Amino acid sequence: MIIMGNSSRFVKKMNNSLTIKRERLISILKGYGSLLVAYSGGVDSTFLLATAHEALKKNLVAITAKSPLHPVRENQEAKSFAQELGVQHMLIQSREMSRPDFTANTKKRCYLCKKYLFIDLLKIARDKNIEYVAHGANVDDLEDFRPGFDAAREMKIMAPMVDAGLAKNDIRTLSKQMNLKTWNKPPMSCLATRIPYGRQITPEKLKMIEKAEQIILGLGVTACRVRLHDKAARIEVDPGDIERILDQGIRSNIVGKLKGIGFSHVAVDLEGYRQGSMNRDI
After folding, report:
1. In terms of domains, do 29 and 102 share one?
2. Whole-model pTM?
3. Dist CA 79 CA 88 (whole Å)
4. In this structure, are 94 and 33 located in the same domain?
5. pLDDT digits over 181-192, tens only?
6. What is the strand order of the sheet 265-268 is part of?
7. How buried is residue 157: exposed, middle or buried, by Cβ count under 10 Å (0-12/13-18/19+)?
8. Do 93 and 115 belong to one domain?
9. Is residue 141 helix, strand or coil?
């Protein structure tokens, strides 16, 4: 009984902490007056957009970048949610793929991608007389290898969820309380993260990766990355799904379809999905 009492007090304290953080976020957002949100449709930016809509009402615009770097399904989901929310939403064609410094795929790849995107977003904000531009970074991003965050800082892109002290788990919990469908959405990242640094990024490679991941996600796995090593596919799924995709029938189906896309070899990574696994040697 004592343990249950302590547990109840802990949950209450945690909920109070989340309430305080959420109220702080709303206060920060209201202070902006008007805001343009870089909206990808992921867990963080969806929560930010929904909360910004609550705080700012019509003084809000959401922008989603359309690019070979992003699966078509993600853009469609972002567009659908913005419409459902009643927020002004724009899909813009990003231009990183026309930049040789980006497609060279150096360790500055994410920095350059975000820099070019934020340049475009700041211009749109000026044209629309919007005071601030924000992205969906959270405090956990401060501890990871996030060169894109450096670009945001340099260009004075706001990170209201960092300022409010919100971590990823906080955002998921609050998203669930707000009935946002994305509360338990697996982590997402651009398709270029599947290509090792130093290997050229091309539309053809990105399309192969997108098709391969769509095939594996279609099997009902919770998360998937298809890492491209020359023409070999290294598949990462959650550890609980590894045995499932190694079933003889499913495995043969995956191999056949991925070879049909253009992969020469297909392998399953027995460590399973790890966010940022391509950054291990950095």
Report:
1. yes
2. 0.88
3. 10
4. yes
5. 999 998 888 999
6. 224-229, 232-237, 265-268
7. buried
8. yes
9. helix
